[in-house]
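Handout, section B. The chain below has 78 residues.
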Amino acid sequence: MKIQNIKNPEELLRLIDSCEGKVELVTEEGDRLNLKSKLCQYISLTSIFSSVKKIPQVEIIAYEPEDIKKLMDYMMKG
């Protein structure tokens, strides 16, 4: 799923931390970073999220239905 207009990446990472299953970030090159890993979160924050103030769009894959719902709710509230 594509998440758009991320204004607060730290809030998104806290949400991902609360997910039960695997959650991945798909890079522009097609690599998948495990966002449940603190190392991958750090890499994401320093390389992807720090380059701009607001992230226009990222692709995130969640595997558990409950986690997908959490992410969808996040997208809907903006």
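Note. Helices lie at 9-18, 38-48, 65-77. Compare this with the example in section A.
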